[in-house]
Design brief:
It is a single chain. With 282 residues, the chain is of the alpha/beta class. Helices cover 60% and strands 10% of the residues. It contains 14 helices and five strands.
Length: 282
Amino acid sequence: MQQHIIDITLENFQQVILEGSQTQPVMVCFWAPNHDESALLLASLEKLAIEKNGAFTLAKINCEQDQSIAMQFGVQSIPTSAMFVQGQPADGFAGNKPEQEIRDILDKHLPDEAQLLAEQGIALIGEQDFVQAAEVLQQSLQLKPDVAPVKLALCKALLETQRVAEIESLLETIGMADQDADYQAILAQLELAKEAADTPEIRALEQALANGGDSDTQLKLAVQYSQVGRVEEALELLFQLLLKDMNAEDGQVKQRFMDILSSHSGEACVSAYRRKLYSLLY
């Protein structure tokens, strides 16, 4: 049984329903195994609980086994369902209902998908899984593009993976009203990251390339760029070499290009450069 589908007893009903609903909606279903309408309703609720993947808890009360709980809640017939939010009954219905009507009731009380993804992404940041956090937060923003706190959370994840260009693009979309202390802190960290990404070795290689450096210099600079998170610049340098010779530097250029595509697959520019490479290969 799924973790968010729980059989309620006298021992756990207060913890699951009254206390648990303080942080997450709980749908309570009063049912009986030998009651056909109950079985049909419970099947629909279990399906939705699995589909919503923990957005709400389904609390099942078998009235044949625990009549006293049903009496405490004033249940007069089965099946009866009640939605608890923050320890209080917020909605409910008697009898069975079509699945879509049950969905409509749930949707009034459940956080939407964008919010769930945002919460998941922020939790992943707390677990220091920054790559996965960035992916999940980007999915949230695809559903709701203008949520400033989610953008700032994504910036935090991107900072840890040195995706400086993407952070700059995100910060440009945040209006003055949302440029709070978190925004200012990220801006300061971004400046430090940009300074760290401009090393003396990189500057020396850039100067050498500007003075007519060869393909080996260009390859070395691309490697340095990739190591400090300047991925798009690294890919562009390598792609220019591949345009001239797919076997440049005895295949090292293509191998490095493929390595960067693989290790930075979450970055926006990677898909475009992967397509460019395929156009050369095929």
